[in-house]
Amino acid sequence: MSTIQNPPFTDVDEFLFRLQMWWYELGGDGQKWVIKYLGALTDIMKVKPRDDLITALVTFWDPIHNVFRFSDFELTPTLEEIVGYSGFNGDLRNQNLIFPKAPSVHRFFGLLNISNQIRKSNVVKGCCSFNFLYSRFGKPDGFEIHEKGLTNKQNKDTWQIHRRFAFMVAFLGIMVFPNKERTIDIRIARVVQVLTTKERHTLAPIILSDIYRALTLCKSEEKFFEGCNILLQMWLTEHLLHHPKFMQYGPNKDNFIESYEERIKDYKSPEGVEAWISYLISLMVSQIEWTLGWLPVREVIHMSTLKSYLLLLGLRSVQPYAPQRVLRQLGRYQLVPDDEDLSMQAIELHPEATLPEALIQQIWNGCRYLKDDTQVPDPAKGEINPGYARWFEKRSRVDDAPEPDLRRPIKRPHVQTFDDKIQERLAWGEKEKGYKATIHALEESMRNLNLEKDLQAQEAEGEKKSLINENKTLRAQF
Fold it and tell me: How many CB atoms lie within 10 A of CB 262?
């Protein structure tokens, strides 16, 4: 495996101090209100980012199957793990999807209780600056400074309520769905509206989809990680750390982000990108803690009745998710998965993209669940079906490739395959345009021929009628 280092990632910490101060200013009641809808997510502000780990981890990402591929095993963050960390309702069976559609600028202002008299130029390319929200709702004197530009009827108590909603938008934009411009996508306001006004809607698929997208882009040498890097680093670290035998596997209402630092305090992690890559290259299946001891694994999503995978709608893309590849992370026997190319199912959400909402919802409604009685005796071991080991070994031989020349960095095989697929799709698109143009020309020719035929028929009919009339006239004369 190559040890070529990805370009260094940019830290998402420029606004962290102001975000923490805003959180403090919300007070106890405001914080409880936010936690009601965001669960334990706000505690990721307390976790120190490990960009060296994220950078190294990207090296092992397989964008064809949306899994991390190591020497003799695969791993991927699962919906259940994201739900467990965030403290959301773990019953995914009864949770609805959120479709983060972009509101108009005026609608965005309305959701945030900002006057529509404010210039629309504060929103550029569907995003606003962090300071646009912070100056109005984060600062203690935001009410006094922007009183006339807010729709709270000049009532500071009302403003205190509105700033909770605005904090959720800013927090998600900076810590969970960051972008390289350090701006906040206005679609997040729509997401927060759904979370705070409708019951049983889950944020987990959006979070996981954006993490998958960020990994794939960074695999292709993008420098900024547009996903929740804190959750990703926590997830991997805990799979590398063996837990005490007395840990209970079952539901627990503890905040597992808040207690994360305590759980890993004795873990001696590598330092620096090269050290992490060297460690991860040599990592073996026996060194993995397969099921997190605090994670409920009673009922888990296996696949869909329609597909062997799910489609997760994120803020920026649709990503395929195949939990059957990592069943042992969910406390089940690992079987041989369907080994199909999932990269073709990824859809980047640019303005012209067609969003398959009905299909996404249909697949989600058809989720198949593995129940309590399918758990293995010891979920931490990661037990497998004998056929899986043979399949993985055979697949590894197929995927093996010579190590690249470090003096001439090239993309890793999976990335090259991924790019080839994209090139094939682009090439087919160009061919399709050519075919359509040819078909259009043929159809036009057929229309012209039919038109000429009709005209000739009409002319013939006219000549025929003329002859008949002439004959009638001659007969009348005689």
Answer: 8
